[in-house]
Amino acid sequence: MDQYRVTSAAGFSLAQFSPGDTSAFEGSRDEAKKHLKNLRKELAELQFLLWAEDKHKLLVVLQAMDTGGKDGTIRNVFKGVNPQGVWVTNFKAPTAEELAHDYLWRVHPHAPGNGEIVVFNRSHYEDVLVVRVLDLVPSQRWGRRYDHIVDFEQRLVDEGTTIVKIYLNISKDEQAGRLQARLDDPERNWKFNAGDLDHRKLWDEYMAAYEDAIARTATATAPWYVVPANAKWHRNIVVTQILVDTLKALDMKFPEPEAGLDTIVIE
Length: 267
Ligand code: AMP
Ligand code: MG
Description:
Blueprint: E1 5-6, H1 29-53, E2 57-64, H2 70-77, E3 86-90, H3 96-99, E4 117-121, H4 130-133, H5 139-143, H6 145-158, E5 161-169, H7 172-184, H8 195-201, H9 203-217, E6 224-228, H10 232-248
Parallel strand pairs: 2-4, 2-5, 3-4, 5-6
Antiparallel strand pairs: 1-6
Helix pairs in contact: 1-10, 2-10
The protein binds adenosine monophosphate and magnesium ion (MG).
Residues 66, 193, 196 line the site of magnesium ion.
């Protein structure tokens, strides 16, 4: 998964990453299905161990343009993982109370505790993405946020959190098709917001904002992954593999059992 990982601004540009790339799995569709199933099983086992060891915490930040596949990724990747121990937090447009505070105020309480996986469906990155593109606060204010975010995430890392940040990279054409599908399918009409079209008009501005956000906040301890996301089957494999690799690297162990278990007889 190294090809998708970004750990610093050096030499980074979004243009190097193709949204349509499917090179991480070269087999038939049937084989891909089987492969994803196996990866999910591995993820479930690792999550069981994470929960049992009760030592590490995993934060998964998911960002994407509208229709980028955040919901579908969560549904497909975490299928089969014990719901006890995995939380999803959605960050929508801030409430009046949230807006009355600094932008990280609503985020920190949702950070994972020991043994937990938390997925941020959107995140504090909206505060340098939509906020920047729509000019919701002056540039002097959002301009300082990249450094805050790096500090905030480093604090979580220093206190035992593992952070994985994923940008689901779809193309503008792919978004057109997905928006059209939401219009065409009555069961998906509810997902269509006319407002998404306003964001779509600002596609280039969003791409510039994503490029800066990734470049300025990618670190070795809180890396970004730019995941090709036009092909959903491939996206699911890549995201699951990233999480499996990340959890494996924690080298987790089941807690030592109490002494003398072998002599206990249950009557
Ligand atoms: P959805 O993910 O489709 O439910 O949409 C959530 C909406 O909330 C998106 O349009 C986001 O851009 C918006 N949103 C999330 N966080 C913020 C934020 N900090 N400031 C302004 N808008 C936000
Ligand atoms: Mg939406």
